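Supplementary Note 2. Why include the ligand at all?

Several targets in our set were suspected to adopt different conformations when bound, so apo predictions alone were not considered sufficient. For every target with a known small-molecule partner we therefore ran a joint prediction. The input for S-adenosylmethionine is given below.
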Amino acid sequence: MGNSSVDLFCGRTAGRTLLAACLGVLFACSAWAAAPEPVLSELDKLTSFATERSENGGYLSELPDGASFGIEKTIAFEENNHFVYLGGKYRAIIYVKPSIYIYVDYTNIGVTENSNFPIKHCGTIADGGLQEQTVKKADDQVVLSVEDSSRSIRLTLPKAPGAVNTATITITDAEGKKLVDERLLPSGILPLGEGGARLLAGWDRAYQNERRAAWDTRRPSSNLVAAVESEAVKKGRAVVLGCGTGTNAIYLAKQGFKVTGVDIAPTALKIAKEKADKAGVKVDWALADVTRVPAMEPFDLVFDRGCYHGVRRGNAAGYVATLRQVTKPGSQALILAGNANEARHYGPPRVKEEEIRGDFSKDFDFTWLKESHFDSFDESQTGPLSWSILLKRK
Ligand SMILES: C[S@@+](CC[C@H](N)C(=O)[O-])C[C@H]1O[C@@H](n2cnc3c(N)ncnc32)[C@H](O)[C@@H]1O
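The joint prediction is reproduced in token form.
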């Protein structure tokens, strides 16, 4: 397939007015009658947010009103130092701070030629006006390159809406230095506000240098291997919550499971994807908060090593609700968590037996709840005391 240019957004007059006009026309032409018209004040909100942020270091503490942008229901959101991503089923806005907006539209607007090409409208608004952008097509992806005087933004977007796990963003400065190394855009709503951005950045930092994170043994979990080999868990579709660099997700894929790995740390997922590619296995990777995952078909198996025990401290109910959402009656969940009976003063977060029973008893039967140990880096050493929890959905 060859290159083509996107069909609107050019000119250099007063940015806001022209933007309003363009978006107005865009939505007036929409065949999607239910789509509300975008309201300029919403873009103002984002712009003033950017200004405020640079003045006060603040972050959005609630989801922007997606309906004003024609995004009926926000299904994906992330804000970090560099960009805000607001995604719906058919439309998405990527606001690269402080002044670039990229508007992606998958609806059937203005289809003339290339009707198999889903993105009809995208453009950027730099300070002072709108700029036409070039969209390059690839077989199963759309590559969008956007530049202003100081940065270059590269987006790869899926050809069809919904396949959000494959959308990536890279931001490079004028000298070619990566400001945002290529990484997934979010699926699901990531934690909001300054605290949320800090949480994500904190986990991500653990994966950003060569020294491996304390828990990252780079060997499949011995508890998981034993459960698979003894057939205590049945093969099928599996999701790994808090999958880190993907070792266990890749192991499951090699065993014949169809696997999705979910984590909040973009760098972990980037490493995971590279490892899966190298191993020649297919895993779907989703950048998402395990307490607000995107809609997914229920899985036969959930595996979690070391995510539940941390997440439950802030939002046990959210984790349990997700476990219910991603399973169906008969589905299994194998969860490895820190054990409150551990005598050592250091190690992962710990959970008491009664807390585990309190969290899961309503929706799940316990196939087992037994003491075990986490694997450690050094295979000859015993890791921290853990719980091995095998659940079956009622
Ligand atoms: C202790 S690490 C374990 C990683 C991996 N399971 C392993 O065994 O190597 C916990 C993982 O959970 C992820 N995590 C923490 N909170 C999360 C959340 N709310 N949503 C998604 N992932 C989260 C972290 O980024 C990290 O990769």
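The first strand starts at residue 3 and ends at 5. The pocket of S-adenosylmethionine is lined by residues 203, 215-216, 242-244, 262-265, 268, 289-291, 305-307, 310-311 (CB under 6 Å). Comparable summaries for the other entries are listed in the accompanying table.
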